[in-house]
Amino acid sequence: MENAEENEQNAEIRHPTCPFCFFHESGVIAANDFAVAVPDAFPVSPGHTLIIPKRHFASLFDATEDEKTALMVLLAEIRERLRQERNAEGFNIGINDGAVAGQTVFHLHIHLIPRYRGDCPDPRGGVRKLFPDQAPYWKNR
Fold it and tell me: How many angstroms separate the CA atoms of 10 and 2, rounded?
């Protein structure tokens, strides 16, 4: 757990009731100055990871340029790790931005979801499957 001095120093960048503002170090897979990577508590595939900024804000559009860079660096690092350690062959990368987009924790987090050959019958359409009749866009041409 973080020490009291670090908690006090970071108090202005954290929200007291946010589950992504406070977590135990043992759950952190990787980190940099602005972000951490942790396993998703409800993974949709083996290795599903969240990339979370250390500062509390809800939208990627509220991130500073340094935070955006740090998030992307960590995203790439974890992607490579999942390719090597779990033989992931593809990835879905997602952000739910706003309640109507499905965001339930209003602290930005990026889902890095590793994909494996045969993990679903037809992966085409990817994130479009949020709207199933829109997913097979290649059939509507």
Answer: 10
**Tens-digit pLDDT profile for residues 99-121:** 999 999 999 999 999 999 999 99
* C-alpha of 90 from chain center: 15
- For the stretch 7-55, pLDDT in tens is 444 445 889 999 999 878 889 999 999 999 999 999 999 999 999 999 9
For residue 38, the tally of other CB atoms under 10 A from its CB is 18
pTM higher than 0.70, yes or no? yes
Domains of the chain: 4-139 (3.30.428.10)
Distance CA 104, CA 50 (A): 14
- d(CA 114, CA 82) in angstroms, rounded, equals 7
* Active-site hit among 24, 48, 56, 109: 109
Is 48 catalytic? The answer is no
Check the CA dihedral 93-73-2-13 and report its sign: negative
Which residues are paired to 35 by β-bridges? 53
